[in-house]
Specification:
Layout: E1 2-13, E2 16-27, E3 31-35, H1 42-49, E4 57-62, E5 65-66, H2 72-78, E6 80-82, H3 95-103, H4 110-123, H5 139-151, E7 157-161, H6 169-184, E8 188-192, H7 196-202, E9 205-210, E10 213-218, H8 220-224, H9 227-237
Parallel strand pairs: 3-8, 3-9, 6-7, 7-8
Antiparallel strand pairs: 1-2, 1-4, 4-5, 9-10
Helix pairs in contact: 3-4, 3-5, 4-5
Bound molecules: adenosine-5'-diphosphate and magnesium ion.
Adenosine-5'-diphosphate (ADP) is lined by residues 13, 16, 18, 36, 38-44.
């Protein structure tokens, strides 16, 4: 069964169609890459999928259930979690406490939340920074903290919005390995990323957005050989 079905989703901001009649489905356990130029509507689609705001048209089904307009805590309890392109940790709280906030979506016990948070800090290799203030972390560690926070919500579907943005090659490689580890845990992922080499390595399939519309969908190989994708996106920069 598809874990996620996106059916004819459009999102309008005034006269602008940030998403326009986008449809695709995701099978459980896969990694779907979501690519396209800046302003293509990738983050908006994440917002529609996670119920952050309802689509203007169409619908999103997660495990067969309609997501339109659900509150974020409800979305999290159903098993969907996303990272934000602009990472905003709770700067004056410790790294451990930030991850505990994620874990509290699953448990009311502070002790249990602390244990979950410690486990996830281990997974992202940030355990040595547990007692540091989140606001003082360099960007690479903030991104890992963001991933630990969402993993602590115990998601079945994880949506990662440019988690490699602003990272150096060594830091990006760590994130790639982390994404592959998460896949081995059986968690389904949708990944927005500009680094084409990275997206080709990790994705089972790729959806390309352009001006809000789905331009193409296919295997990484099909996408790099798709003339429309090369013309709209891959041609010059990548
Ligand atoms: N809350 C909003 N209000 C108005 N316009 C928005 C809003 N969010 C996104 N947009 C616009 O929608 C388009 C798609 O943006 P976005 O989804 O952030 O693209 P991407 O993530 O692919 O770079 C852009 O033109 C952007 O300016
Ligand atoms: Mg974006």
């Amino acid at each position: 069964m598809a874990i996620l079905e996106i059916k004819h989703v459009s999102k309008f901001f005034g006269g602008l169609a940030a998403n326009s009649d986008v449809s695709f489905t995701m099978a459980e356990g896969m990694i779907m890459g979501l690519i396209g130029p800046n302003g293509a509507g990738k983050t908006t689609l994440f917002n529609c999928i996670t119920g952050y705001y309802p689509p203007s048209r169409g619908e999103v089904l997660f495990k067969g259930r309609k997501m339109n307009g659900l509150q974020p805590d409800k979305v999290c309890k159903l098993g969907m979690a996303r990272t934000w392109q602009k990472v905003r940790p709770l700067a004056k709280m410790t790294v451990l406490d930030n991850v505990m906030v994620g874990a509290l979506c699953r448990t009311n016990s502070l002790k249990a939340a602390r244990e979950i948070a410690q486990e996830q800090l281990q997974v992202v290799r940030l355990k040595q920074k547990a007692g540091f203030l989140a606001g003082g972390l360099p960007i690479g560690e903030r991104k890992k903290l963001e991933v630990a926070r969402v993993l602590a919500t115990k998601p079945e579907l994880l949506l990662l919005d440019e988690v490699m943005g602003g990272l150096n090659p060594a830091e990006s490689e760590e994130i790639i390995q982390l994404i592959l580890d998460i896949k081995r845990q059986g968690i389904t992922q949708m990944v927005i990323e500009h680094d084409m080499k990275a997206i080709m390595r990790i994705s089972d399939r790729i959806v390309v957005l352009n001006s809000g519309e789905k331009l193409a969908e296919g295997s990484p190989e099909e996408i790099v050989n798709n003339q429309a994708v090369v013309d709209a996106y891959l041609g010059s920069e990548h």
